Amino acid sequence: MVKLAEWQGKVVFRKYGVPLPRGEVARSASEAEALVRSGKVPLPCVIKAQVLSGGRGKGGAVRFASTPEEARAAAEAILALDFKGEKVRTVLLEEKLPIGRELYVAMTLDRSQRLPLLMASARGGVEVESVADEEIDRQTVHPFPGLTSYEKRRAARALGVTGAQARSLEKVLDSLWKAFQLEDAELVEINPLAVVGDGLVALDAKVVIEDDASFRHPEYAEVRDDRTELEEIAREKEIAFVQLDGNIGVIANGAGLTMATLDVLKEFGGEPGVFLDLGGTDDPKKVTEAFLLMARAKPAAVFLNIFGGITRCDTVAKGLVEAMTQVPAAERFPLVARIRGNNEAEGIEILRSAGVTAIPDLKASAQAAVEAARGRP
Ligand code: GDP
Ligand code: MN
Q1: CB 238 within 8 A of CB 285
Q2: 240 CB contacts (<8 Å, ≥6 apart)?
Q3: Which of 13, 286, 360, 367 has its CA 20 to 30 A from that of 134?
Q4: How far is CA 60 from the centre of its chain?
Q5: 192: Cβ below 6 Å to ligand 1?
Q6: Angle between the 344-353 and 313-326 helix axes, to the nearest 10 degrees?
Q7: What is the pLDDT of residues 283-311, one digit of tens each?
Q8: Which residues of the chain are under the pLDDT cut of 50?
């Protein structure tokens, strides 16, 4: 089960258009203060512990500040907390909105009915656990038609919103439904969904990704706050990049092929050290960036396993060759490539003329990569 921290859930929400307060994360009190001083987080602001346990509002892990000094002090106090046994390492700072009512909406899976379930309650906020069953409206949503207008209107009625607020709610629900479907979530929850003037804003976010779908979402494989420096850089560039303990770098495309490639290397006695999933891209610029990042991880050898479907082998190869020239000579490493599919012959030709070992057979190429890494640090 991949349970996202609030700020990570909000990254997902933003992607699907759920309205959110302006906010930024900080990992130290001085970073928090700087965010406020620079105006990136407007005052007054809310400072919230980024932990996976709920009940932060009641547990002193949500504080307010109206000056940079107060923001610093609040961040310092929260970062010193051991919240329900969880060390607080990150805080989220957000603009403090003048809120009216606090509502509750969530989409989850009703396993007994085998359908998504939309829940809505006008009694959102910190006490939602104690809200009586009959005060939570529940509707199953059939995945084929998706969330219908009728269901959205019924939710609006349950929440007691009309006019512009009801229109805002419909958008929020559409976004929530999309997030639930496309991210393979088992829960997307907004509590509170706050009434702010004519609109609604998600003040909190709870997102849990379905474990069985994790192969479709390699981006969640490493959802933790302990990313390495390179992983952090990769994340900013939207490159799927994970550091492991071994010494062979793996570049593949698609989560499935990437995982299979790690297995094959292991099978032949290799230890994968870093893997990088190019996904569906063959954009030479992206390939170059990814490769340079790989170089910074100092692998003993790199095994490239590309299947050209939508991705064209020759453009990937071009990107790689271009990238190789940018790696300083002292940091070069042996590169073994297996590329199959669309424009394969051209791709292999490009790689070979650049001095890359290109072997179409999977086993043979994996063995060559393990061999190339042997004896190197
Ligand atoms: P939880 O207790 O862990 O679920 O934390 P929440 O993120 O739900 O925050 C708890 C409470 O803090 C909310 O129910 C709000 O009452 C309050 N709160 C959070 N953000 C804001 C804000 O931007 N403005 C105001 N006025 N209150 C906020
Ligand atoms: Mn909450």
Answers
A1: no
A2: 218, 219, 234, 255, 258, 276, 277, 279
A3: 13
A4: 27
A5: yes
A6: 20
A7: 778 888 888 888 888 899 999 998 888 77
A8: 225
